[in-house]
Design brief:
heterodimer, A: eight-stranded parallel beta barrel, four-stranded antiparallel beta sheet, B: mainly beta, seven-stranded mixed beta sheet, 4 helices, 15 strands, 37% strand
Chain lengths: 298, 244
């Protein structure tokens, strides 16, 4: 009943773990079988291993949190050697989230991922926490278009582009990415935001700004998913502050094929199980046989 | 499978010193000294994250936490009354190595005294505690039966030695040191003990998930970046790289 199809890949349900909040699934698999998820988007990968940012990395805000992890990850090769076998041992759809500082880095990463069992590449052009890269590609349409076009040339996996809410114009950004070859879109990544330590009289974060996520961004994320769904025909994965099944249904009704749950994983490790069950229950109560019936219905 | 959040019932929640509370919950909770639980006692998403608290004691169907009211979350927890429910995830992280014996020093700074009672109860050997506070001392009356000496330092001199707890102890007197407290104290203890006596430190950091996924609570160690919530919170002193 809850099955959804994304570019020919069947997901058991529309609930995907969002990149950066779920590691590579190991820690959560101790609390619930991650195979019950629709999919998992890996911690953001870069071609080479990264240690991430120094200083404070997490800061709580009203109904949300700011993070400046800075893409700490084992690198694409490290992922393929040490993390992917665990995910392959599970019956789960894998989105490999890939970021980078240069086009060459992205392309090399894609080539390595091409020869693996992952189902999708989620191209991260929206991480606000690394200098010279990540989000730099996701603000202006021209730079996004260029990287997506080059990525599409080498990618042998379906290419989902993860958009930044910090883009100059989200509709134009979405349209540009699809025109350049994106097979699907996921949105939104975190909002670039600021917190001040008033006693130190300095920004809380060493990078000054950091990425804001959680329920506080949900209404804006939802609006962006809706707007993007008006201008593109590719599958959209809705992300932004989803903490319960009602939020998930809202995103689907706004036009999302599937959704990702991020920060909410921190408030209860098995929260996505609750969300999946809630979606099922809602469908039963409302007599909905397939989520296709309500997708974009508003 | 490990349990996700489960319920505990408040037995007591007492302010034992200004802004310092002792929370006792009923329920069958496990854990070794140095491990922690994530606590949440409110509905909704503000505060968003649960609060990590170190195990202060576990005894016959009850678990104890000692906490300082610092922000919104601990403020809400401080208002809990007997019979109220709250959600707990844990025990989490790696606790102290309890296999050691000999002459042991426990060193705490401020609320870093939280794990010391449970630790003292579970160590064999001759235990001496050195506790530093800003002004008011607390929790030591409960620890006293399990240690040979209690040594107190206060910054304002209102009780015990006036100054820092690190002024009080000589690492040459001990076979092993355990420390928990603010970062400057931890750094000072590790420096004092360096190459003289093994020291285990309990680190703290801002946490989101508490289970090792978000990479928010990492510290630098000689092995690379490690997670306070997963590889820690207890580390060997010589493994921690202090940057500032």
């Amino acid at each position: 009943m809850t099955k959804v199809d994304i570019l020919g890949v069947e997901l058991k349900n529309p609930v995907i773990a969002a990149s950066g909040t779920f590691g590579f699934g190991r820690e959560f698999d101790e609390y619930f079988p991650i195979e019950s998820l629709g999919g998992i988007s890996t911690k953001g990968l870069t071609l080479n291993k990264r240690d991430g940012n120094k200083g404070i990395r997490i800061y709580e805000t009203a109904s949300g949190l700011m993070n400046s992890i800075g893409l700490q990850n084992p690198g694409v090769k490290g992922f393929i050697e040490d993390e992917l076998p665990f995910l392959e041992s599970k019956d789960i759809v894998i989105l490999a989230n890939l970021g980078g500082s240069t086009i060459e880095e992205y392309l090399e990463g894609i080539e390595l991922l091409n020869n693996t069992s992952i189902h999708f590449i989620e191209l991260n052009i929206s991480c606000p926490n690394v200098k010279e890269g990540g989000m730099a590609f996701g603000i202006k349409c021209s730079s996004a278009e260029e990287i997506v076009r080059e990525a599409k040339k080498v990618a042998k996996k379906p290419l989902i582009v993860k958009l930044s809410p910090n883009a100059e114009n989200i509709q134009e950004m979405a349209y540009s990415c699809v025109k350049a070859g994106a097979d699907g879109l996921s949105l939104v990544n975190t909002f670039n935001a600021l917190a001040v330590d008033i006693y130190r009289r300095k920004p809380v974060f060493e990078n000054i700004t950091a990425g804001l996520s959680g329920p506080c961004i949900k209404p804006i994320a939802l609006r962006m998913v809706y707007e993007v769904s008006q201008v593109v025909d590719v599958p959209i994965i809705g992300i932004g502050g989803i903490v319960n099944w009602k939020d998930a249904i809202e995103f689907i009704m706004a036009g999302a094929t599937a959704i990702q749950v991020g920060s909410a994983n921190f408030i209860k490790p098995d929260i996505m199980v609750d969300i999946i069950n809630g979606i099922q229950e809602f469908m039963r109560e409302e007599g909905i046989k397939s989520l296709d019936e309500i997708r974009g219905i508003i | 499978m490990k349990d996700s959040y489960r319920k505990g019932i408040v037995f007591s929640n007492t302010e034992i010193s200004p802004n310092i509370y002792e929370l006792v919950l009923e329920g069958n909770f496990q854990g070794i000294p140095g491990q922690f639980y994530m606590l949440r006692s409110w509905e909704g998403t503000d505060p968003f994250l649960p609060r990590p608290l170190s195990i202060a004691d576990i005894d016959s169907g009850r678990i104890k936490f000692l906490y300082e009211v610092k922000g919104k979350g601990t403020h809400i927890i401080s208002k809990l009354k007997k019979g109220d429910g709250l959600s707990l995830l844990g025990p989490l992280g790696n606790g102290f190595d309890l296999s050691q014996a000999g002459k042991i020093a426990l060193i705490s700074g401020g609320i870093g005294i939280a794990p010391m009672l449970y630790l003292a109860k579970n160590l064999s050997g001759e235990i001496h505690i050195f506790s530093g506070f800003r002004n008011n001392a607390y929790f030591l009356d409960q620890i006293r039966p399990y240690v040979k000496t209690v040594n107190i330092a206060t910054e304002n001199g209102s009780l015990g030695h006036k100054g820092l707890v690190t002024d009080l102890f000589d690492p040459g007197d001990f076979d092993l040191v355990y420390a928990c407290g603010p970062m400057p104290m931890i750094r000072a203890v590790v420096n004092i003990c360096k190459a003289r006596v093994p020291v285990f430190v309990s680190m703290e950091n801002r946490m989101a998930c508490g289970i090792g996924a978000c990479l928010g609570c990492t510290i630098e160690t000689v092995r690379g970046i490690e997670r306070v919530c997963k590889e820690g919170p207890v580390f060997k002193g010589e493994e921690v790289v202090f940057n500032d």
